[in-house]
Every structure is written in C-alpha cells, then in structure tokens.
Amino acid sequence: MPIAVDIDVMLAKRKMSVGELAERVGITPANLAVLKNGRAKAVRFSTLAALCEVLECQPGDLLRWEADGVTGRTMH
Questions:
Q1: pTM of the model
Q2: Beta strands in the chain (DSSP E)
Q3: What is the pLDDT of residues 38-70, one digit of tens each?
Q4: Distance CA 32, CA 74 (A)
C-alpha cells in the first residue's frame, strides 16, 4: 500500500509504549497494532486526531505516501 505508517517512529521519539499510547488514545492495543503495522484499511479522523494530540505531532508525522515501486513516472 502506498501509505506508510510511522507511529513506531513517534513512539520511539516520545519514549512511549504501544500499551500506553493505546490507553491514552482510547483504542485497544490490538487495533493500534493493526494501524501501526500498516494493515488497517482506514483510520477515523477522531482516532488520528487523538493520536496527534497524545503524541504531540501532526498527521504528516504519522502517515506518508510512498510510490508503489513505480520509477520514472510522475503523477499530477
């Protein structure tokens, strides 16, 4: 999938565990793991906002777009 999830990077920067983040955001550790590992099909804006609030970051710190291995092609 071309959307990469960098929650683990922010967890390391904030020295926070997955369990602590899940508790503070109000989701289960299992659901956070699905999101963190890039297996989620969607994320609610309310969940994204809660993640950003707890981690004191912007959505772009948690999610980024990556090309799907296609080289030399520019999308407009």
A1: 0.84
A2: 3-5, 63-65
A3: 999 999 999 999 999 999 999 999 999 998 765
A4: 33
Secondary structure of the chain: what % helix, strand, coil (to 5)? 50, 10, 40
Quick one: CA dihedral 22, 37, 14, 17, positive or negative? positive
Angle at 43 between CA 41 and CA 48, to 5 degrees: 155
Q: Name 37's Cβ contacts closer than 8 Å, sequence gap at least 6.
A: 5
Taking the C-alpha atoms of residue 76 and residue 47, their distance in angstroms, rounded to an integer, is 30
Query: What CA–CA distance (Å, rounded) separates 15 from 60?
Result: 19
